[in-house]
Amino acid sequence: MPARSARPGFVLDVDRSTPPTLFWHGEQYHLERLPAGSRVVYPPEALPALEHPDAAIRHALLNPLGDSQPLPSLLRAGMRLTICFDDISLPLPPMRRPDVRQRVIEAVLDMAAEAGVDDVVLIAALALHRRMTEQELRHALGDRVYDAFAPQGLLTQLDAEDPESMLHLGTTDAGEDVEISKRAATSDLIVYVNINLVAMDGGHKSVATGLASYRSLRHHHNVRTMQHSRSFMDQHRSELHSSNWRMGRHIAACGIKIFQIETTLNSNTFPEQFAFLQRREWEWTARDRATFLGVSKSLDRTPARLARSIFQSIRSPHQMQSVQAGEVEAVHEVTTRNVYRQQLVEVQGQSDILTMGLPYICPYNVNSIMNPILVACLGLGYFFNLYRGKPLVREGGVVIMRHPTPWAFHPVHHPSYIDFFEQVLAETTDPLEIESKFEEGFATDPWYVHLYRTSYAYHGVHPFYMWYWCAHALQHLGGVILVGGDPKAVRRMGFKPASTMRDALEMAEDVVGRDPSITHMHTPPLLIADVK
Amino acid sequence: MRVPRLPARFPYGAPTWPRGVPRPRAEGRTGVNYDTSWARRYPVRLVRAAVLDGVTRPLVHAVASPTMEGLDRLEAMTGPAIFAANHASHIDTPLLLTALPERIRHRTAIAAAADTFFDKEWKAALSAFGIGAIPIERVRVSPQSTRLGSELIKDGWNLVIFPEGGRSPDGWGRSHRAGAAYLAQRTGAPVVPVHLDGTRRIQKKGAKGIRPSSTRVSFGQPLHPDDGEDTRTFAARVERAIAVLADEEAVGFWQARRRASAGTTPTLVGPAAPRWRRTWALGEGKRRTGGPRRWPRTSRS
């Protein structure tokens, strides 16, 4: 237990006595002095972790929520059991060993072994993400699980482009195709192991998205759905959520049994060496300041590639804060409450300008490069949507992001991103036009399909989805400014480049008028602004 | 002369604390829990007295050129007292301490804000040794502070308290808190009202350096709480007494007494008006002392 209880998040009103504020800047960070009168939204401190996580997992499996029997009662000899788990995109940064998935899956396998279940298959729920490497799988599942299942081909990764391994389950009332993994759909029981980093994760989205094909995903991964999800973190106002729920209920109606396990993590995001990243600036100790200066000055002289590999090697000290299991909707309700408990910060009113420093990592560049499209997606798709109620910035306002935004792509992980950036964005940045003119071609391109299935590439349609994530923000905002980015790359995306935060604020005044109100999101660690 | 302030800027130096964020209550050995008894042991007092008389006093005289008034009012005092003064500058404490008669000076403790002077061990030790400070809570009358203050007075120590709870942000005073009045009622010690004038010119709140200027220290008549007088009323009487001392400086003793009798003594808190009007009003009725003359003297031209 920590020495004192975790303090809630809060909103700081900047005045002359406020020290400069930390802004992430990719694999670097900077201190910026915000104008007096600005607001800074700080995330809550990390909640206490579960003292005995393994016991808590076992307790959750034996005491399920909702209309579900305890897991041992659902297991029997001769049954087909499929255990699905979240892929490399969660958690962020990847957590220290043992990963939550390893703990939970080992507990599930213990019970399956006790019940004499022989037919067990593990599936990494990739959807259209890239496949995980052996090292990544070992990290997520632990060596015991990997060595027991992988050599026999029982540890698989979803191949959404293999017609033989997918099963069409019909359509929802809204006419949405539901197509998921055949192995999962034909199992007696699916156990899905989630890591719920944000409120959007989990629930029916786990199976309906994680195990689905393009044919199914395109019904909610489209511009209209994204523009009508306000925000993704607010289930009651998210069209993405509604669509997934329709699909999830359809899957249940088809007789497919799901035992959902959801875990939440506390926001203890960075290791002790980088403790200053999750401290409030005025509480920085001499050691924090020395670390900041040492790391910052060293990074100034470090080649980008080396800096990237240093940051990508960070293993987060995330700790499990809660675990619940049972029927999907009942479980997800409790999980969402726990996520909100860790991340929600009440904020009064919107502002003209929202500033954010973007870190080196997002769900789609773990052990990879944060290309310009992912920068846009992290800022406008994820951070902008970290709200409940109203966006932090008013309609017609400006978002100022800080990130180096290099014109750089990982050729193995993101091949279709390169063409999307070079060809599609060169022609238009309008998500609706992009969707109607280009999506189909990229989604069905045989080369991208081949790379997705056999290499470690994201699906051909994935960069489109990243751009659609930004659709709500692009529709809402009057302008987007990127500070410190490669001007060519920034302009390609239709944003304005600025060299300094001061320049950016002056540029923003051209859009929102003089003396604008400014709010800065001091994240990560993550927060959800509950805007009143 | 402008003495530059050396501390480096954040992150090379320590960060400033945002005004809107309350400081966490000090825990452990610092803050109100800091034990200052070692600083009142005889050998430490001896060293402090030597430093106070040999170093601090000459420095204060060089920087603040103090004029003392009303010291005669202290002569009749035999027991310990509580000195309650207005507060505009960090220079107030050494100025008042060195202005006190010797018999009082070396047996005086300063009530200092625990969140500022006792938040770190080295600062706490320096404050306790240098000025004989004891920690008190700025925002409330805490049992610990009250107990310590009472014990000191009963032991024959005088106490300096700034009842405004902190330095003036704009030159005007702030409403008094009841700590000094409460201690006086609890211990029976009198409260001596003290008005310090001109210290803001030397170093106002937030200023980066010090600028030598002349100052004036006025001691008022020691006040005792009346029978049945409640703490708030007594605190208000002390506040009025300091306002009268300030008025004496502006309009002279007699006019100030007449205005005090008529209840028309200007308050120290200034008008409830926009900031510029408060600043404007601050200059009214003040004698120009020190500082550069704007026009040459005609007799020399």
Describe the structure.
The complex is a heterodimer of chains A (532) and B (301). Chain A has helices at 53-62, 71-74, 100-115, 134-149, 182-185, 205-210, 214-217, 223-227, 239-253, 286-300, 304-312, 328-343, 372-383, 415-427, 431-444, 446-454, 462-469, 471-476, 487-492, 501-512; strands spanning 10-13, 21-24, 29-32, 39-42, 80-86, 119-125, 155-157, 166-171, 177-181, 189-196, 258-265, 320-326, 344-347, 351-357, 387-388, 393-402, 479-483, 496-498, 518-521, 528-531. Chain A is of the alpha/beta class and 532 residues long. Chain A has two domains: 10-46 and 344-531, LarA, C-terminal domain (2-enoyl-CoA Hydratase, Chain A, domain 1), CATH 3.90.226; 53-218 and 246-265, Rossmann fold. In chain A, strands 1-4-19-14-16-17-18 form a seven-stranded mixed beta sheet, sandwiched between helices. In chain A, strand 2 and strand 3 (29-32) form a beta hairpin. Chain A is globular and about 70 Å long. In chain B, strands 1-7-6-2-5-3-4 form a seven-stranded mixed beta sheet, sandwiched between helices. The radius of gyration of chain B is 19 Å and the shape is globular. The two termini of chain B are 27 Å apart. Mean pLDDT of chain B is 83; it is low at 1-6 and 287-291. The A-B interface holds A 12-15, 17-20, 31, 281-284, 286, 289, 292-293 and B 10-12, 14-21.
Write a brief caption for the model.
The complex is a heterodimer of chains A (532) and B (301). Chain A has 20 helices and 20 strands.
